[in-house]
């Protein structure tokens, strides 16, 4: 029992150490950067030999003679010196990018991969602070600079950063990172998912520098329930109580200086006469300037309200129908994790072409380019925490991990007008432990952001006596704002023609968003509407689903599954799936299937 208690304490300690990571710097997107993208030397390490203690069965940095630990990036002193690794002559991988897609021998690899990047850096001014930031790395990452541990991060889809000011040295600095993408029963997500387990430094890595006195964090958004009062929460570093931080929003004639408190913070609001509200039809973004000391940080922020009223979703007080599509973070044509603004333009360009005003970024936080571009294009966004399927609901470290990942994406995206929904989970089986876990996440989320809508992709179930009646009564629904659920009538349940006879019994008077419906088709495979995997079969599902859903009085939106075919180890059917989930409306070669045009036609004709 004692051993278990020690293990739990260790896990909590580890996750606790991670919580410090949620004080992420706000809006590094618009700061000057020194990119570390490009070729990194790598050493594959399935036995964690680079840090592993051969006496213990766990990751242990200090039990090896330090020079033999890969994070020391040591070299043989002379020909008599025995060293068994050398980054300088090791293979290279491109960063960002998964290792799986860069070398066939790594395609199925799940384990540790060591990365090493040398860089020189000269600070612009004494007293400035220098950070290294990772926009994402899947799944468990430890970071070292010049042989010293900077810290670690758990979670494959949220940013993390470390202050390296005091660890920089003249000449070459050795940045060593070990990323382990093994799936864990107690992980978030857990071991089973319907997506490919891309491993590695899958997003941008860069350095940035801020003055000793700088803007660390801010939330500048309309206050809940207000259309003219902008909440202003600013956190600075290095300023003494009474020193000023300036806020300028020129087009709103806001130019104010606020005195920070003893903690360097400002919590206030500004009232404005007239705002050009952000919406899909008018994605207005205001230039916002923040100045503290000699730090100036610029942002582009849209102002809008989002609320529910009974079964209606109100954007800026007007009812709106969410014409959406679900998206995985995978550029199917490039065939790897999406990370760049070009990838975002491809994916959101297809969504716009489909007639969407909304996207569900499934099943985990996507890279920041997606939400920044959605702001510009006027596409509303559902962001999702990777609490997917059968999570270890009773494990406190699992909860802390889930909460930490949610905190990180909320910190990163809280000023994005496009983000209207925080989703707690996807397809999690109702039960006491699960309900408790998700209710804690809701309380945490609302305590940090009371302006956005909360939801989760819940499930339906069949009436016990009449299989034509589908019931939606997940008890968790009463704690969120949108009643969203996945249903696959016509694919996993019945045939496309089954849709017509289905009756929906929905327990709550809330806006209903169908977070997933759809079916698989191999692009270019044609036949009649009864033949599985044909484009015609998939098109029939969409046609019949849209007719069925239009009969639901509270129907307020949909994000059908899914924009494009994506890799999944759970989809092996030869000649049809070949390792791809084929529910995409677009194939991995960019080919639009018939169902794309069915949905496009529906959205283009759908008013409110
Ligand atoms: C589920 C799940 C998706 C999955 C889909 C499918 O609804 O949420 O992640 O890919 O079904 O079976 O294709």
Keyphrases for this structure?
single chain; 6-stranded antiparallel sheet; Immunoglobulin-like; Jelly Rolls; globular; binds alpha-D-glucopyranuronic acid; 608 residues; TIM Barrel
Summarize the model shown.
With 608 residues, the protein is α/β, with parallel strands linked by helices. It has three domains: 192 residues, Galactose-binding domain-like (Jelly Rolls, Sandwich), CATH 2.60.120; 91 residues, Immunoglobulin-like (Sandwich), CATH 2.60.40; 299 residues, TIM Barrel (Alpha-Beta Barrel).
The CATH topology of the largest domain turns out to be TIM Barrel
Small-molecule binders: alpha-D-glucopyranuronic acid
Low-confidence stretches: 11-21
Query: What is the 3D shape?
Result: globular
Number of strands: 35
Task: Please write out the topology.
Blueprint: H1 2-19, E1 33-35, E2 38-45, E3 91-95, E4 112-119, E5 129-134, E6 140-145, E7 148-154, E8 160-163, E9 173-180, E10 205-210, E11 214-222, E12 229-237, E13 244-249, E14 254-259, E15 265-271, E16 286-292, E17 295-301, E18 306-309, E19 312-315, E20 318-319, E21 322-327, E22 330-331, E23 336-337, H2 341-353, E24 358-361, H3 368-377, E25 380-384, H4 396-413, E26 419-426, H5 432-448, E27 453-459, E28 461-462, E29 469-472, E30 483-486, E31 503-506, E32 512-516, H6 535-549, E33 555-558, E34 566-567, E35 580-581, H7 594-605
Helix pairs in contact: 1-4, 2-3, 4-5, 6-7
Bound molecules: alpha-D-glucopyranuronic acid.
Alpha-D-glucopyranuronic acid is lined by residues 194, 363, 426-427, 486, 516, 561, 581, 583.
């Amino acid at each position: 029992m004692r051993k278990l208690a020690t293990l739990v304490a260790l896990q909590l300690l580890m996750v606790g150490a991670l919580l410090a990571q949620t004080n992420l710097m706000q809006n590094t997107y618009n700061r000057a950067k020194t990119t570390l993208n490009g070729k990194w030397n790598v050493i594959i390490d399935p036995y964690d030999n680079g840090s592993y203690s051969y006496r213990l069965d766990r990751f242990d940095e200090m039990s090896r003679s330090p020079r033999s630990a890969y994070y020391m990036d040591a070299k043989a002193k002379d020909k008599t010196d025995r060293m068994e690794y050398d980054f300088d002559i090791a293979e290279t991988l491109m960063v960002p990018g998964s290792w799986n897609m860069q070398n066939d021998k790594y395609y199925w690899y799940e384990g540790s991969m060591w990365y090493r990047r040398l860089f020189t850096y000269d600070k612009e001014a004494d007293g400035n602070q220098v950070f290294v930031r990772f926009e994402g790395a899947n799944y468990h990452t430890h970071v070292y600079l010049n042989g010293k541990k900077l810290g670690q991060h758990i979670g494959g889809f949220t940013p993390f950063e470390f202050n390296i000011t005091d660890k920089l040295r003249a000449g070459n600095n050795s940045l060593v990172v070990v990323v382990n993408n093994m799936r864990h029963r107690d992980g978030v997500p857990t071991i089973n998912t319907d997506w490919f387990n891309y491993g590695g430094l899958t997003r941008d890595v860069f350095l940035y520098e801020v003055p000793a006195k700088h803007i660390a964090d801010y939330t500048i958004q309309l206050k809940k329930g207000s259309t003219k009062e902008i909440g202003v929460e600013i956190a600075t570093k290095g300023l003494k109580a009474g020193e000023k931080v300036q806020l300028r929003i020129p087009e709103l004639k806001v130019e104010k200086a606020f005195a920070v408190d003893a903690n360097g913070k400002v919590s206030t609001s500004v009232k404005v006469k007239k705002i050009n509200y952000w919406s899909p039809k008018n994605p207005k973004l205001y230039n916002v300037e923040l100045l503290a000391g000699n730090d100036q940080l610029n942002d582009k922020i849209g102002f809008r309200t989002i609320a529910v009223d009974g079964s209606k979703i109100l954007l800026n007080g007007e009812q709106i129908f969410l014409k959406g599509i679900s998206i995985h973070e995978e550029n199917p044509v490039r065939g790897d994790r999406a990370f760049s603004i070009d990838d975002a333009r491809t994916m959101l360009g297809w969504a716009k072409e489909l007639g969407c005003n909304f996207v569900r970024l499934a099943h985990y936080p996507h890279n920041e380019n997606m939400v920044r571009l959605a702001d510009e294009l006027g596409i509303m966004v559902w962001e999702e925490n990777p609490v997917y399927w059968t999570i270890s609901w009773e494990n406190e470290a699992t909860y802390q991990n889930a909460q930490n990942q949610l905190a990180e994406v909320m910190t990163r995206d809280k000023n994005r007008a496009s983000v209207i929904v925080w989703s707690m989970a996807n397809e999690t089986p109702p039960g006491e432990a699960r309900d408790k876990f998700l209710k804690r996440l809701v309380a945490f989320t609302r305590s940090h952001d009371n302006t956005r809508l909360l939801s989760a992709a819940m499930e339906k179930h069949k009436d016990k006596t009449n299989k034509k009646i589908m019931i939606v009564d997940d008890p968790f629904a009463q704690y969120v704002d949108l009643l969203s659920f996945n249903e696959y009538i016509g694919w996993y349940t019945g045939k496309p023609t089954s849709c017509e006879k289905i009756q929906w019994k929905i327990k709550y008077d809330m806006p209903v968003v169908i977070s997933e419906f759809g079916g698989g088709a191999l692009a270019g495979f044609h036949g009649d509407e009864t033949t599985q995997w044909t484009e015609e079969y998939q098109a029939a599902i969409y046609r019949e689903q849209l007719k069925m859903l239009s009969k639901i009085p509270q129907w307020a939106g949909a994000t059908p599954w899914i924009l494009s075919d994506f890799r999944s180890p759970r989809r092996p059917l030869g000649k049809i799936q070949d390792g791809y989930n084929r529910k995409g409306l677009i194939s991995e070669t960019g080919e639009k299937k018939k169902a794309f045009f069915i949905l496009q036609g529906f959205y283009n004709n759908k008013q409110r």
